[in-house]
User: What shape does this take?
Amino acid sequence: MSTDTTDVEDLYTHERDLLVAELADLSQTQWQTPSLCQGWSVRDLCSHLLMPYELSTARFLGGIVRARMSFDRLADRWITQDQRSGPDIAAALAQTTAAGFAVPGAGPLAPLAHLAIHSEDVRRPLVLPGAVAAPSAVLVLDDVTSGKHSIGAEKLNGLRFVATDADWSLGAGPEVCGTASTLLSALNGRGPSAAALTGAGAETFRARLA
Assistant: This one.
């Protein structure tokens, strides 16, 4: 599937606007709900979404050195230092564009992947009605299962992953079925998303995640 810059920008804009619209109705309690990223609330997770847009390359490089080369430690420091309210963070997120994604070495799909994966980290614990659109999810699924990222063959081998709402599948073997957005979230290690998968291979996949 094409990774043309215009395609990514258009898909990013759609996903951003959908998520921001859902965030607009959150209560203070919902902003403090644990996200699917362990240790982070929904507010924290949305603050993290802004990190690639508000942290300059120079500050990123300096910060990663101070964090002893740990991206997770750097990300934790970012959200701890960000004192904005949830609504203020949502307003800032509404101004982001794919072109503004400023992570050194990031590929063309990085802004869409960052938003799509973490959108599900927000929606699922809050049971929000939205979902990553199938075209966005499929594009990111192709990328994250290409072997360039952290989804290893040990999670994939011997199983056939099938999107129920898009023309996307991967592998051979007992089927693991779900919407494209659910598969994207589950393949990135989110247990609650994996719990929603069906098919003869779903339990095997969940055991691998565990």
